[in-house]
Task: inverse folding
DNA sequence: GGAAGGCGTA
């Protein structure tokens, strides 16, 4: 071998002495031959010096680092041993498979081998798959075929191991043909690898075909199938197949248990889960972290936190997954604060644990805490992933926090967070619920793979923002795209009809649900119909719908009728609706308030006093009106008469100025809905301090001229605030967007998108 | 003549 072909970082002749000392075998040899003992005195009968080859091989076997390997490599070149295929293979094997190995160096060594054996090729392929460079592995395999070397039964498991989805899709089928062509189709190792490749491609039926053809005597074959079913979320199939495995009496491995437990967790099947736990105990399987985590996960998913905690407590080692399992278990049961205690105790938190906790707050509607935790996550320098993004976007949607939502969108683009359909759908929802329909539309257009949820989010979003016709057009387009609507889509469709007063269209769609898509209307859909008819003033027809619906009307359905009674000032029917609601939901404070509004509007003051007394007697409290406004990424909260804000002085000054400006253009306070038994002046002062007015004043102070003011209100907007917002939009040339409990009001140039119909 | 395949958490 010419010297020029030796890698330059090897110093052949300069092996340092300390290296020789550390590596005692060579050192002993050198000592022997250089010590004072004369060679002649060593009798060959007593001592046969090991051959150089044996020594080097021994060294290769104890080699720990690339530096060491390079020294050995240089020795093999110096002594001429490199030409020995066994030595070549061992050098390559170290570089390819040792934890400190190096594939670049493996290539350099490999390139010096004139005619590599199939073993050497296999080792190289294995090396690439170990470091997830599967494409290089495939290229290596093709090189091998070009060099007229035939694969053996080791080649394919190495090659196919750990393929990513895209590599599997690209090469899987073709390599399967090679397997068959070279006659390894019935090798169980190859079959296991192929099952895995096909399940990665989503071709679970082909995987199952291979499984059915296999001898089914190797637990790993079964495990590969379980893993495939779990990946496709076909947990029932995992459970069913495990039943067959039990019948067959085949010995499970700990991986079998992990996979089956994972399926049980998803299915919330405590029975099978417990059975697996019993097997684990009976089989005397060494407790291992992954298995214990799977047990915790299964018990936590089934709500059995006592058992989960017991396992958690007995564990020798716990990792972030064990802790996250416990935290999620409590979150599933709605015990958010308990979950938070465990979360705070975690020695290490990763993005999964942070996201789980954030999502936990979300599920119990504690949105502000979710956002606070997200900020903490960022100060801890933990990178959020697409799941975190979906959770945070959903919090933004609930709070109407557009600025933060926009920031998340920028973050996704900047840091290349996986922008999948889930994220896109969450963005649409966020933009719509923050009142920015234009941005929602553009996200909608960008989503390549629109699913049912994408369309539904857009339809519902358009409907609540008052773009009823566009929502219905979108629904037609959805049907043309052959996407099947579900019951939520229809809620959006009916809502679109309601908010634009399209009664006949509403009826048509309602009957189309069953006739065209076999979706039986649920109580929400009947509620929509009552709302639709009621708002259009057809109160009697609305009542007929309630009387004829096939299920028991809930308080929301009666509430829809009550809302219509308010708009159309029908106190008699309102009394009836209230009676029904209070039977179903006796502590519903909002109902008393609405009835008071109606009595006040109809000027039935005696009735009004009675209801107010009833509220006092029963200790019913009015839900305090609360408005949110986001400014510079911070959500500010105002309740009626609020004086807790740091800028409260300025806010009230602005409010005074605002009111006098508006009075100048003809504003008269509308106190018709105030039901407090107080003088007219006090009524004015009561509506004057409504939370949305405070938020509007705050918004006017803190934003640039011309900037849109966005407010989220927890209750229905009152008539007076609605009038004020219209005037503010005109007098100050501002767009004001208020999201109330059920819909959006886009105020522009003195009028509202709801056309005063809400 | 030497080497091998499967797993868990939002």
Result:
């Amino acid at each position: 071998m010419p010297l020029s072909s030796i890698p330059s970082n090897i110093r052949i002749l300069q092996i340092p002495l300390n290296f020789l000392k550390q590596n005692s075998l060579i050192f002993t040899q050198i000592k022997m031959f250089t010590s004072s003992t004369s060679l002649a005195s060593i009798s060959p009968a007593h001592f046969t010096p090991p051959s150089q080859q044996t020594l080097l091989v021994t060294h290769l076997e104890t080699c720990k680092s690339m530096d060491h390997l390079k020294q050995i490599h240089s020795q093999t070149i110096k002594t001429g041993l490199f030409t020995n295929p066994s030595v070549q293979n061992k050098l390559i094997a170290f570089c390819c498979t040792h934890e400190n190995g190096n594939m670049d160096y493996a290539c350099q060594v490999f390139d010096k081998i004139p005619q590599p054996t199939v073993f050497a090729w296999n080792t190289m392929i294995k090396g690439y798959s170990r470091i997830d460079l599967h494409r290089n592995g495939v290229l290596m395999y093709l090189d091998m075929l070009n060099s007229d070397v035939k694969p053996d039964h080791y080649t394919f498991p190495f090659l196919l191991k750990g393929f990513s989805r895209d590599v599997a899709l690209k090469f899987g089928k073709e390599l399967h043909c090679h397997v068959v062509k070279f006659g390894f189709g019935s090798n169980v190792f190859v079959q296991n690898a192929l099952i895995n490749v096909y399940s990665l491609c989503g071709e679970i039926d082909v995987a199952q075909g291979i499984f059915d053809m296999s001898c089914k005597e190797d637990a790993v074959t079964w495990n590969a199938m379980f893993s495939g079913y779990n990946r496709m979320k076909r947990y029932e199939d995992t459970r069913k197949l495990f039943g067959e495995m039990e019948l067959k009496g085949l010995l499970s491995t700990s991986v079998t248990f992990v996979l089956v437990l994972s399926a049980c967790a998803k299915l919330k099947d405590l029975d099978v889960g417990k059975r697996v736990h019993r097997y684990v105990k009976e089989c005397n399987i060494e407790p291992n972290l992954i298995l214990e985590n799977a047990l915790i996960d299964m018990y936590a998913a089934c709500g059995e936190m006592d058992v989960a905690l017991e396992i958690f407590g007995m564990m020798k080692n716990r990792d972030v997954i064990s802790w996250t399992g416990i935290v999620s278990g409590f979150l599933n049961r709605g015990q958010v604060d308990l979950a938070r205690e465990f979360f705070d105790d975690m020695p290490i938190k990763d993005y999964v644990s942070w996201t789980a906790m954030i999502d936990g707050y979300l599920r119990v509607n504690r949105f502000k805490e979710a956002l606070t935790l997200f900020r903490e996550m960022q100060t801890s320098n933990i990178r959020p992933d697409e799941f975190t993004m979906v959770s945070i976007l959903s919090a933004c949607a609930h709070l109407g926090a557009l600025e933060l939502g926009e920031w998340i969108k920028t973050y996704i683009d900047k840091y290349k967070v996986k922008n999948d359909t889930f994220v896109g759908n969450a963005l649409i929802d966020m933009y719509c619920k923050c009142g920015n329909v234009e941005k929602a539309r553009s996200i909608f257009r960008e989503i390549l793979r629109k699913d049912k949820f994408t369309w539904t989010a857009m339809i519902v979003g358009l409907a609540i923002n008052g773009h009823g016709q566009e929502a219905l057009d979108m629904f037609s387009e959805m049907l043309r795209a052959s996407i099947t609507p579900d019951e939520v889509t229809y809620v959006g469709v009916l809502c679109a009809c309601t908010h634009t007063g399209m009664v006949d269209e509403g009826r048509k769609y309602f009957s189309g649900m069953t006739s065209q898509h076999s979706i039986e209307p649920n109580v929400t859909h009947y509620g929509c119909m009552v709302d639709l008819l009621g708002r259009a003033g057809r109160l009697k027809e609305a009542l007929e719908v309630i009387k004829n619906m096939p299920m028991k009307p809930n308080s929301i359905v009666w509430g829809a009728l009550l809302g219509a009674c308010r708009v159309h000032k029908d106190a008699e029917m309102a009394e009836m609706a209230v009676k029904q609601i209070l039977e179903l939901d006796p502590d519903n404070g909002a109902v008393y308030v609405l009835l008071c509004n109606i009595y006040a509007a109809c000027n039935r003051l005696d009735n009004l006093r009675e209801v107010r007394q009833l509220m006092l007697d029963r200790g019913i409290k009015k839900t305090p009106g609360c408005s949110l406004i986001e400014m510079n990424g911070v959500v500010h909260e105002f309740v009626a008469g609020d004086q807790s804000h740091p800028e409260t002085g300025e806010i009230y000054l602005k409010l005074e100025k605002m009111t006098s400006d508006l009075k100048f253009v003809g504003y008269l306070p509308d106190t018709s809905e105030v039901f407090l038994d107080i003088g007219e002046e006090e009524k004015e002062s009561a509506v004057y301090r409504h939370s949305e007015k405070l938020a509007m004043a705050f918004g006017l102070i803190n934003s640039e001229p011309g900037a849109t003011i966005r407010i989220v209100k927890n209750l229905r907007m009152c008539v007076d605030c609605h009038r004020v917002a219209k005037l503010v939009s005109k007098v100050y040339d501002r767009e004001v967007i208020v999201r109330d409990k059920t819909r959006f009001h886009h105020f522009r140039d003195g009028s509202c998108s709801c056309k005063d119909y809400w």
